Structures are given as C-alpha cells and as structure tokens.
Amino acid sequence: MAAEHGVRLWRAELDVTDTTRMREVVEQAFTDLGHIDVVVTNAGHGLIGAAEELPDDQIDRQLPPTSPAPSSSPAP
C-alpha cells in the first residue's frame, strides 16, 4: 500500500489497550494530516485452543479489541 499511495498513506502501530498511546497517535495523525478521510483498524490477537478451556482472564483480554464499538451515528 505504501508503494501505491506514498505520502497519502499514514499509518501507526499501537496497542489498542493503551489508551494514552491511542490518544497520542490520533493527535499526531491530525497534526500531520490536518484532517482524516478514512480510518482502517485491524486490532486483535489470537488464541489457540478450545474456547471452553480458556481461563477467564484470556477471554477478557480477547473480547474487547475484537468486539465492534457502538456506533454513535443515528439509526436510519
């Protein structure tokens, strides 16, 4: 993508459980770009094993990054 879009592509890598870092990245994006037209996220991590055998702490860590956020847009 970087080869195709060059400076029009802005990207950052971060831990989505680190809200301080998320705020820093968003602030830096607006500083660098002025405005944002599109945001693409790909957050999550994998676990190997049967779901029913996972301890609660692993389930708690897995669900928030991969669960969709509530939409703030009005219903049609």
Condensed summary:
The protein is mainly α. Helix content is 39%, strand content 0%.
Task: Give your account of this protein's structure.
This protein has helices spanning 2-5, 19-33, 56-66. It has 76 residues and is mainly α. It is elongated and about 45 Å long. Residues 71-76 have low confidence and may be disordered.
Spell out the blueprint of helices and strands.
Layout: H1 2-5, H2 19-33, H3 56-66
Query: Structural class given helices, strands, pairing?
Result: mainly alpha
Distance between the termini: 34 Å
- Integer average pLDDT: 75
Specify the overall morphology: elongated
Q: Write the element-wise H/E pattern from the N-terminal end onward.
A: HHH
In total, the number of strands is: 0
Gyration radius, rounded: 16 Å
Major β-sheet profile: none
Any low-confidence stretches, pLDDT <50, length ≥5? 71-76
Tally of helical segments = 3
Helix content: 25-40%
- Report the β-strand fraction as a percent range: under 5%
Oligomer: single chain
Tags for this model:
0% strand, elongated, mainly alpha, disordered C terminus, single chain
